[in-house]
UniProtKB/TrEMBL annotation:
This is Monooxygenase. One of its GO terms (molecular function) is FAD binding. Gene3D superfamilies: 3.30.70.2450, 3.40.30.120, FAD/NAD(P)-binding domain. Signal peptide: none annotated. It comes from Streptomyces pristinaespiralis. Keywords: FAD, Flavoprotein, Monooxygenase, Oxidoreductase.
C-alpha cells in the first residue's frame, strides 16, 4: 500500500533540524528527518549554548545533560602585553532563568544529546539521504530523495523544513534569495590542548599584531582556538592547517608561554554575512543557517537556529493537527525574520570592530577597551543587560500578530510578547507540557466562585492547561496570562474578565467542537 503523505519533511539533521524534530514528535506529527551526511558532526563547530536555548530545550529533558557535558565558564581573561585583565561575566545573581551562564559545549556534543533523545524515543535519523528535487502538487509537495547508493525514493508531504545549512537545497527549491557579503579575512580554528592556560575561563589574547581566542570546552578537547590568519602570510583557505602553524601564530601574538598539543581537528575558513529574503515560500520553510549565516561573534548562530526551529515546530504541529488556522504559519516569518536580521547586524558590527586594521579602532581595541571594560561592566545592571542580550533572553515578539494585551495590561513585570521568566523558580517547568498555558494570578479568592476560568478551556481539551498561581507570580495583583507552547507570552491583562482572552483564543486556537448543553 502507498504510504500516506507526511506532515513535514525535515531536511538537515544538525542542531536546528534535531530541535524541530523533537518538537514535532512532542505533538504527534507525522514527519521524517533526513541528512545527506552519513554521520553527525564530530568536530566542535559552534561552541556555546545560550541560556535561552537551554530554557527552550528543557521541556525535552535534555538541558541538564547538556550542562553536565559542558563548561559554564564565568569569566573572561584579556591578555595584553605585560598584563592580564580579568572581567567577570555572569556573576549577576540573575534569578529569572535556571541557566544564568554561557555554556561552552561542542556542537558535536549538542548534536549527540539531541540525536540520542530522538533515537531513544523511536525517531530514526535518516543519514545518507539527500533531497534532490521537489514538485508542488496543490496542498502537497512531491519530494525526490536519493540515497548514497543512488537509489531514489519519492515522498509527498504537506510542508518542507529547510534546516540544511548555508548551501540549502530547500532554499534553492523555494526560490528564496540569500543576500549578503563575505569577509576578506581567513580564520584558523582548532580543538586542542594548550598547556599554560588558566582553566575555567575564556581567554582573549590581544596585541597590535593580531588576536587569538581560547574558549574552554570539555570534549572533544579542552580548548577551542580561534585566530585570524596573519595578513602577511599567504591566504590559502581550504588547505591543511598544521600544529606548527598554530604554535608559530601563538608565539607571535600571545604574551604567554603556551604550548599547543594533541589537536583533535584543525581547519581554516572564510566567514559570510548573509540572510534569506524571507523564511517562508508556500510549503517551504527555512531555519538556522539556511536562513542566516554570520560571524561567530557572541555565539549566536546555532542558538538562533534552534530557536527558529522551536518557534516553527509548534505552529506546524498545530496546523497539521487541525487545531489552528493556516494563518498561524505566516507568523513564523513575521517573528523570526526580524530576529535573524538583528543577529546579522549585531555580529557584523562586532566582527568589524574586532578585525578592523584602522589605527584608531585597533588602538581602541587593544589599549582602551581592556582598560575601560572592567570599569564599564562593574555595575551589575549593565552586565545583566549585556548578559540578556547575548544570552538571547531579551528576544521578544511584542510586535507579532500573535501577541495581544488586554485593555489594562500590568504596569510592571514581563509584557505580552516577552519570554515567560522562571519567576518564581519552577514556573517554566510548570508550563513545559505541550500546548498553551493559562496562568491565573492574584490574591486568595480572586478567581473563586466565578465561571470564567473554565470558559477558555471549552472545546480545547488537551490544548489549553489552566494553572492558578495565586500571588506567587511574576506580576502583582490579579492578572491572567496566556503562554504559548514555546514559552512566550501571547496575551496578558489584569482583572478577571476573560472576554478578550477568549477572543484571542478563538482567532488562533479555535474550539474544536461546540460545547454540548448539559442534561
Amino acid at each position: 500500500m502507498e504510504e500516506p503523505p507526511l506532515d513535514v519533511l525535515i531536511v538537515g539533521a544538525g542542531p536546528t533540524g534535531l530541535a524541530l524534530a523533537a518538537q514535532l514528535r512532542a505533538y504527534g506529527v507525522r514527519f521524517r528527518i533526513i541528512d545527506r551526511h552519513l554521520d553527525r558532526a564530530r568536530e566542535s563547530r559552534a561552541l556555546a549554548v545560550q541560556p535561552r536555548t537551554l530554557e527552550a530545550l528543557a521541556p525535552f529533558g535534555v538541558s541538564e545533560e547538556l550542562v553536565r557535558r559542558g563548561n559554564p565558564a564565568v569569566r573572561l581573561s584579556m591578555h595584553l602585553p605585560g598584563r592580564t585583565v580579568r572581567v567577570p561575566l555572569f556573576d549577576l545573581g540573575v534569578a529569572d532563568t535556571p541557566y544564568p551562564f554561557l555554556l561552552f559545549l561542542s556542537q558535536a556534543e549538542t548534536e549527540s544529546v539531541l540525536g540520542r533523545y530522538l533515537t531513544d524515543g523511536g525517531t530514526p535519523l535518516e543519514r545518507g539521504v539527500e533531497l534532490v528535487g521537489t514538485v508542488g502538487a496543490g496542498e502537497q509537495v512531491a519530494c525526490r530523495l536519493r540515497r548514497g547508493d543512488g537509489a531514489e525514493e519519492r515522498v509527498t508531504t504537506r510542508y518542507v523544513a529547510g534546516c540544511d545549512g548555508a548551501r540549502s537545497t530547500v532554499r534553492q527549491q523555494a526560490g528564496i534569495g540569500f543576500e549578503g557579503h563575505s569577509y576578506p579575512q581567513t580564520f584558523l580554528l582548532a580543538d586542542l590542548e594548550a598547556d599554560g592556560l588558566e582553566p575555567g575561563a575564556a581567554h582573549a589574547c590581544m596585541t597590535d599584531a593580531g588576536m587569538v581566542f581560547f574558549f574552554p570546552l570539555v570534549s572533544p578537547a579542552s580548548w577551542r582556538m580561534l585566530a585570524i590568519r596573519p595578513p602577511d602570510t599567504p591566504d590559502t583557505a581550504g588547505t591543511a592547517v598544521s600544529l606548527a602553524m598554530l604554535q608559530s601564530l601563538v608565539d607571535r601574538y600571545v604574551d604567554l608561554p603556551l604550548r599547543l598539543r594533541d589537536p583533535v581537528w584543525m581547519t581554516d575558513f572564510k566567514i559570510h554575512n548573509r540572510g534569506a529574503g524571507r523564511y517562508r515560500s508556500g510549503p517551504f520553510f527555512l531555519a538556522g543557517d539556511a536562513a542566516h549565516i554570520h560571524s561567530p561573534a557572541g555565539a549566536q548562530g546555532m542558538n538562533t537556529g534552534i530557536q527558529d526551529a522551536l518557534n516553527l515546530g509548534w505552529k506546524l504541529a498545530m496546523v497539521c493537527r487541525g487545531t489552528a488556522p493556516a494563518a498561524l504559519l505566516d507568523t513564523y516569518d513575521a517573528e523570526r525574520a526580524p530576529v535573524g536580521r538583528d543577529v546579522l547586524r549585531f555580529t557584523d558590527l562586532a566582527f568589524k570592530i574586532a578585525t578592523s586594521a584602522h589605527p584608531l579602532i585597533r588602538s581602541a581595541r587593544t589599549r582602551l577597551a581592556p582598560r575601560v571594560a572592567p570599569l564599564v561592566l562593574r555595575p551589575a545592571p549593565l552586565r545583566a543587560a549585556v548578559f540578556r542580550r547575548l544570552g538571547q533572553l531579551a528576544v521578544d515578539y511584542r510586535r507579532s500578530p500573535l501577541t495581544a494585551a488586554g485593555s489594562r495590561p500590568p504596569r510592571h513585570g514581563p509584557r505580552a510578547g516577552d519570554r515567560l521568566p522562571d519567576t518564581p523558580p519552577g514556573l517554566q517547568a510548570l508550563t513545559a507540557r505541550p500546548g498553551h498555558h493559562l496562568l491565573l494570578c492574584g490574591p486568595p479568592g480572586s478567581w473563586n466562585g466565578s465561571p470564567e476560568p473554565a470558559a477558555p478551556a471549552r472545546g480545547r481539551a488537551g490544548l489549553l492547561h489552566v494553572h492558578r498561581l495565586g500571588t506567587n507570580a511574576p506580576w502583582a495583583g490579579t492578572v491572567h496570562c496566556l503562554v504559548r507552547p514555546d514559552g512566550y507570552i501571547a496575551y496578558l491583562a489584569t482583572g478577571t474578565d476573560l472576554t478578550g482572552l477568549v477572543a484571542h483564543l478563538d482567532r488562533w486556537l479555535p474550539p474544536r467542537e461546540p460545547e454540548r448543553p448539559g442534561p
